[in-house]
Amino acid sequence: MNYDIFSSTAPAMPSPSKGTEFCKLLLSQASKDMREPLVPMAFPALAAHLADVEFMYCDNKYYELCGQMGHLIGPSGIGKAQLTHLVEAVQRSFRDHDETEYKKLVDWQRQVKTKGANKEKPERPDVSFWFPPADLTNPAFIQNAMALEKLGGRTMYLNLPEVEQADKICGGHRQVSQTIRNIYDRQRAGALRATADGVTGNPILRVNITFSSTPDAARAFYKKDLTNGFFGRIPFAYKARGERKGKIPRQGTYDEDFLARLDEYILRLDNCKGRFVVKPLNKIADQLAEEMARLSDLADDDMLFELSHRSIFAAWKKAATLWILNGQAYTRSIGEYMVWFCYYDLWSKVRVFGDMFKEADAQSDDVKKGGPKNMLDSLERSFNEQRLEALRYELGKSKKGTKHQLNVWKNRGFITYSAQTGLYTKTENYLKSQV
Length: 435
Prior knowledge:
Elements: H1 21-27, H2 35-47, E1 53-56, E2 62-64, E3 69-73, H3 82-90, H4 92-114, H5 138-150, E4 156-160, H6 165-170, H7 173-184, E5 207-213, H8 215-222, E6 236-238, H9 256-271, E7 274-276, H10 279-299, H11 302-325, H12 332-353, E8 382-383, H13 385-394, H14 402-411, E9 415-418, E10 423-426, H15 428-433
Parallel strand pairs: 1-7, 3-5, 3-6, 4-5
Antiparallel strand pairs: 1-2, 8-10, 9-10
Helix pairs in contact: 2-3, 10-11, 10-12, 11-12
């Protein structure tokens, strides 16, 4: 087990080294306290530069790297706006492209207005926006997805400083869940929808999105969607407030030197085409699947196990993007980051939403304490069945599952049983894995 997702402390990010030098550049202008959450949050913007690229996952199917998302969560004033500064640097070419497209649209609108009522109106030009504004409406969103598909299947990137802005883009909060699932799975929009111009369409949603919000706003936003697949598809990056310090965090400047170095990496994304199989990444995904099953058994939590599947897949997509950024070469450091991406996402979910996994009422505290726990860690080195029963009762779990949980722990080598004393004892291998 590499990290403890049940701890109050966030999993420590690996130090950038051979193969992940890009991460060092990415963080060079961020304030020290915001470096960890900004790394996973940058990948949806980076991956939007990829087109005609597919990777084979462990299930032997090929997947595009679009559909990457992220939700940055932290208290007000924590520095979430640094994400916007970073993605604006990453997406400069997208802004330049969109400015040209916007001028085409303005010129067309001007021509339409100058034509008389009885004169033939010019056709709307084929325009597509790669980095639309955050106040995009649902008809415009669908129309833009249609244009992107028609003009080659580019990925649209959206950065929403407030998570509630997703309601407007998706056509209301009830539609957010289905839209996000379609984006994650690269499905079509799901229905023929009318746009502002009366155009209908059902495009494949190649979209990458990042959200930002406070913990309270995030809990309210996902409250009714924890079990329908929507919540699990969003990777999270949570940043707690930390200690009160009398210093204003220092940010750097995205100067010409930084942008020139950044563009060298972006060019690798723009130029990458084809199908790839990176066996070391798939091997790590298999290892993570086993670790996640182990974690879920320690907590006896089915929801944690279900969430872990998509956390692994999202981490794999980020690592595949890192592989491209590293000149299509794998290093051990890329694998370490993939593992960290997965654990950091699950840790963030447990810290912010853990008590809601059991349909507890949402409250306004910054961090909740009632989420999944490693129950074996909460027990003495040697304990009896009744002690585990009592712990399960304290955590709101049925006593009926006690014997099954003990059998799972024995089969996984976490504990041994002595018929002479009637006690279960943690194994040395388990204790070493927790250090």
